[in-house]
Amino acid sequence: MTIFSVQSTIFSRASVVLLSSNGLKRFSFASSFSSNAVYSSPLPKTKKRRCYPIVSAVDIAGVTIARNDVVRDDDPTNNVPDSIFSKLGMQLHRRDKHPIGIIKNAIYDYFDSNYAKEFEKFEDLSPIVSTKQNFDDVLVPADHVSRSLNDTYYVDPQTVLRCHTSAHQAELLRKGHRRFLVTGDVYRRDSIDATHYPVFHQMEGFCVFSPEDWNESDIDSTLHAAEDLKKCLEGLARHLFGAVEMRWVDTYFPFTNPSFELEIYFKEDWLEVLGCGVTEQGILKQSGLDNNVAWAFGLGLERLAMVLFDIPDIRLFWSSDERFTSQFGKGELGVKFKPFSKYPPCYKDISFWISDSFTENNFCEVVRGIAGDLVEEVKLIDNFTNKKGMTSHCYRIVFRSMERSLTDEEVNNLQSKVRDEVQRKLNVELR
Ligand code: DAH
């Protein structure tokens, strides 16, 4: 079940499926949680990585992390490829001249000027977190699909690459922080298209209230928090987008109740820009906050940047091509990106009989492992089951570089590797 959603919004018209005791229940969590709503076997470990140079260590906020600690061929739970390991520590959000950093700084400016710098900022917390931090602490149910190996990168059974910045809420509360913004890179196994990339950036906001904050008003504490939250985020949207039309949509997140999404009217369409809500009491109580309410929000920086800077393809954020990087300057919000070229795409189809363990995320990981950022999109274009009950999928792979023309030979070579590896690793039968 793929419901298209732009990843970096993250939120949530896209639904996920929770396999609950009373049947199939859908709820939204985050748009990238995820297309294939089934538990499935992990991608068999790749021994040979094709497109990426093997990086042996990365530096995250001054701490050196060795490849062997994160990419483990000997652990069947580990599904972190080298292409993902090499992204740890890149921290695009800390580059002031990068669109992601420019937006982060614009949001900081909004909070600094409206809340007298009360919001503390965290932006170099390690993306390697425990499953407790990523899921349990924020009340993600034990059978939530986002916990599957199909959706999340696992280092080992207790350790993941965070799939949202909400993973830091509880630890910061426990350490005594009450108003904060957490920005960071987050990781999700996903499909491939112009708006989905396995690494993207989020900002989490959190604000705790005490009884004296709502006692003065006549309304109850939850309503007080919800109203304050909406006022804050409407102001933020105006700060970023100008005088836009907005609307609130009720939704579901495991960590908030009530939960909302904010949509803005942009280029003749409603666009989700963030998810938020009043924090579940369970989260506050775990941190010893028995008499409080809080609000929280999470937003996807790529989504905002694609809209504000007119950036057409999410891969561009990772480009070091001067023709991209030189177009942005510190503090320059909303400069319109001028595409420097559009090289021709090359389409290749691949058909195979799938097995029960097949998932589209696993297939996409194989394609990315071989073609890296030369793959623009992977689309299911045909799907049928024959009389014997065998199911066939045909995928169209769009190869296109953003920086140069690809040669036929190069693309044929990539496609032939995809065919080999898909057969070898995914237990499918090529047609
Ligand atoms: N963690 C959510 C996601 O990744 C976004 C989110 C929604 C964060 C609601 C929040 C929140 O703090 O209250 O999609």
TrEMBL record:
It is found in: Mitochondrion matrix. Residues 103-339 form the Aminoacyl-transfer RNA synthetases class-II family profile domain. It is an enzyme of class 6 (ligase). InterPro entries: aa-tRNA-synth_II, aa-tRNA-synth_II/BPL/LPL, Fdx_antiC-bd, Fdx_antiC-bd_sf, Phe-tRNA-synth_IIc_mito, Phenylalanyl-tRNA_Synthase. GO terms for molecular function: ATP binding; phenylalanine-tRNA ligase activity; tRNA binding. GO terms for biological process: phenylalanyl-tRNA aminoacylation. Residues 341-431 form the FDX-ACB domain. It catalyses: tRNA(Phe) + L-phenylalanine + ATP = L-phenylalanyl-tRNA(Phe) + AMP + diphosphate + H(+). The keyword Lyase does not apply. Keywords: Aminoacyl-tRNA synthetase, ATP-binding, Ligase, Mitochondrion, Nucleotide-binding, Protein biosynthesis, Transit peptide. GO terms for cellular component: mitochondrial matrix. Its EC number is 6.1.1.20. Belongs to the class-II aminoacyl-tRNA synthetase family. Is responsible for the charging of tRNA(Phe) with phenylalanine in mitochondrial translation. This is phenylalanine--tRNA ligase. The lineage of its organism: Eukaryota, Viridiplantae, Streptophyta, Embryophyta, Tracheophyta.
